Amino acid sequence: MESKSVILKGLLKQSSLGIVRVGRTGNLIHIVQALEEGGLNCVEITMTTPRALRAIEEAAGKLGSVLIGAGTVLDGPTARQAILAGAEFLVTPTVEPDVVQMAQRYGKVVIVGAMTPTEILTAWEAGADMVKVFPANVLGPGYLKAVHGPLPQIPLAPTGGITAANAGDFICAGATMVCAGGWLVDKKAVAEGRYEVLTERARQLVTAVEKAKAGMDKEQ
């Protein structure tokens, strides 16, 4: 079990997070392994996944080189269960102060979902380590850039509709991290057992983010 500072440092270094939301947990380990092979070692397993707690416990136990977190955490009791199952970080879809408090109590990273500037600031003041801006595909990189301007101190993690094609745009707009789900973990590919598709998409995502970050470093 790593310290909170180590986990946060790992997330910030990767700057990309894979979201796993599947209907069956039987192939979850294969999914996470496929993403890791593509260079993505930060993965969120949503609580909407059947037997999510068991899946988190299994993934955390077998894949020590991958940071495993719990997503779609809506309340304090669920947050505690996820942490005890092995989740190193928690992600909420909305501003949930009790989840933040539980994460702080156990020394875990918490990424809080928000959309408006008021919600983003509220999440940050409540103790969020990062704020998940959702739905990113509706709001767009321009929105993120506009919000980042007056709130540069808040690490933003756009989520929703993130692909390798637009990840770099969000990074350049001020995102600290991008979170990809549906595009990354293609349901058809998973159903057909073609995990190499996930590996390639993870590689594309990581490459796009690294390229964008490198370009920004050169400009500074």
Quick summary:
The chain is α/β, with parallel strands linked by helices.
Keywords:
alpha/beta; TIM Barrel; 8-stranded parallel beta sheet
Q: Give me the secondary-structure category.
A: alpha/beta
What integer is the average pLDDT? 95
Order of helices and strands: HEHEHEHEHEHEHEHEHH
The number of helical runs is 10
| DSSP helix fraction | 40-55%
Tell me about this structure.
There is one protein chain. An eight-stranded parallel sheet has the order 7-6-5-4-3-2-1-8, sandwiched between helices. Helix 3 (52-62) runs parallel beside helix 4, helix 4 packs parallel to helix 5 and helix 8 packs parallel to helix 10 (195-219). The chain is globular, with a radius of gyration of 16 Å. It has one domain: Alpha-Beta Barrel (TIM Barrel). The protein has ten helices and eight strands. The mean pLDDT is 95. The chain has helices at residues 4-14, 28-37, 52-62, 76-85, 97-105, 117-126, 136-148, 164-172, 187-191, 195-219, and strands spanning 16-20, 42-46, 67-71, 89-91, 109-114, 130-133, 156-158, 178-180.
Outline the fold blueprint.
Layout: H1 4-14, E1 16-20, H2 28-37, E2 42-46, H3 52-62, E3 67-71, H4 76-85, E4 89-91, H5 97-105, E5 109-114, H6 117-126, E6 130-133, H7 136-148, E7 156-158, H8 164-172, E8 178-180, H9 187-191, H10 195-219
Parallel strand pairs: 1-2, 1-8, 2-3, 3-4, 4-5, 5-6, 6-7
